[in-house]
Prior knowledge:
The protein contains two helices and two strands, in the order E-E-H-H. A two-stranded antiparallel ribbon has the order 1-2. The model has no long low-confidence stretch (mean pLDDT 85). It is α+β, with helices and mostly antiparallel strands. The chain starts with 18 loop residues before the first strand and ends in a 9-residue tail after the last helix. A hairpin with a 5-residue loop joins strand 1 and strand 2.
Amino acid sequence: MKSKICNICHLGIDETKGFVRNIHFKNKKEIFSEGYYHLNCFREKVLGVGQLKNIQNQASKLMHFAKDKMGMVDVVDIE
């Protein structure tokens, strides 16, 4: 039996730990495609963690740009 490779990160999957098996059927008996994923890779892909981090970074940059344009200065405590 060949080893399973994650379709997201392209690393080998340890079958003793949990993994996701995704099967697409062409009809009731014939398998069209089959994919394997690490649990964490699949969870991050489904939840959109990467896109969420990207959106948060863009929003933060926009807020800093808007503050600079309005003349607002961040308060810094010096001890």
